[in-house]
Amino acid sequence: MGGSELSVDLPTPRKALTIGAHPDDAEYAAGGTLAKWARGGCEVSMIVLTDGSKGSWDLAVTPGQLSKTRELEQRRSFETLGATGELVMLGHPDGHLDASPSPRETLCLWIRRLRPDVVLTHDPWRRYEMHSDHRAAGWAAVDAVVAARDHLFYPEQLGDGLSKHRPRNIMLWNVDEPDHWEDVSGSIDIKARALKCHESQMLTTPVPPGELDRVLKGRAAASAPNGLELAEAFKLLVP
Predict the structure, then answer these.
(1) What distance in Å separates the CA atoms of residue 91 and residue 22, rounded to the nearest whole number?
(2) Using an 8 Å Cβ cutoff, are 95 and 52 in contact?
(3) E strands of 118-211, at which residues?
(4) pLDDT in tens, 96-114
(5) What is the DSSP letter of 201?
(6) Mean pLDDT in the chain?
(7) Which of 8, 24, 73, 120 is the most exposed place for a label (fewest CB within 10 A)?
(8) 119 - beta bridge partners?
(9) Count of CB atoms within 10 A of residue 101's CB?
(10) How many separate helices (H) and strands (E) can be counted in the chain?
């Protein structure tokens, strides 16, 4: 069931989980929200599905070198956001999520382990989303939330202290028609610092590092509804 009303600022959740296709996906889309919640006492965890081994235009770098670099960058970014939960790097080959067995079962297990109140992920219904990993990650994440809430999905996961779990909300990022916004006026600078940890990606973005703060604030201002200065936009679902 989806939310039918426009809304601003969920109460700070006790636990939040992002599920992103690549290192830096969650920070670009929701870094201000995550930093704000972490500062408010939320236990933020992040799952990164791929190894990020194709995210470079540097002809001299190998996929193996890049994947190691991107994991280190992701760990620095995680700390910069103030996240205190789990950082899970699943290591699927970059660019092949749509051709691989769905990670739904693994994601279901992590949702049951981490027990987030809110799951944030890619919008799999987004029109004209060109990156197959983003589409596949969004579908797997939404499907995993549905599976995690019902005991007849993957029953072998249950027992020994592990039980089904139903998050209160899913927040989809990079959506065509947002209906929920998070005020990031006080956390946009932390988002910028977290993104700058992903140094290997500076070659693949048209935004020079020195312009990143200005560009992020401009995008957050453009996303903000009336009454907010800077915001990140989402589609809010109730699973």
Answers:
(1) 10
(2) no
(3) 118-122, 169-173, 180-183
(4) 998 888 899 999 999 999 9
(5) G
(6) 94
(7) 8
(8) 17, 170
(9) 9
(10) 6, 8
Angle at 164 between CA 159 and CA 165, to 5 degrees: 140
* Pairwise CA distance, residues 13 & 87, whole Å: 18
Distance linking the first and last C-alpha atoms of the chain? 6
Which single residue is written with the structure tokens 């599976």? 147
Q: Which residue has the tokens 């200005």?
A: 214
Q: Which of 26-40, 149-163, 183-197, 208-222 has the lowest mean pLDDT?
A: 208-222
The C-alpha atoms of residue 124 and residue 127 are separated, in whole angstroms, by 9
The answer to whether the CB of 104 falls within 8 A of the CB of 142 is: no
CA distance 22 to 167: 23
CB-based contact 24:81 (threshold 8 Å): no
* Alpha-helical regions (H) of the chain: 25-39, 63-81, 104-114, 132-149, 188-196, 212-223
Nearest 10 degrees: CA dihedral of 8, 126, 238, 99? -140
With 0.85 as the threshold, say if the pTM is over it: yes
Q: What is the tens place of the pLDDT at every residue in 67-105?
A: 999 999 999 999 999 999 999 999 999 999 988 888 999
The neighbour count for residue 239, using CB atoms within 10 Å, is 15
- What percent of the residues of the chain are helix, what percent strand, and what percent coil, each to the nearest 5? 40, 20, 40
User: Which pair of structure tokens corresponds to residue 9?
Assistant: 């600022």
Give the burial string for 158-171 (b: 16+ CB within 10 Å, else e).
Answer: eeeeeebbebebbb
Contact yes or no for 97/136 (Cβ under 8 A): yes
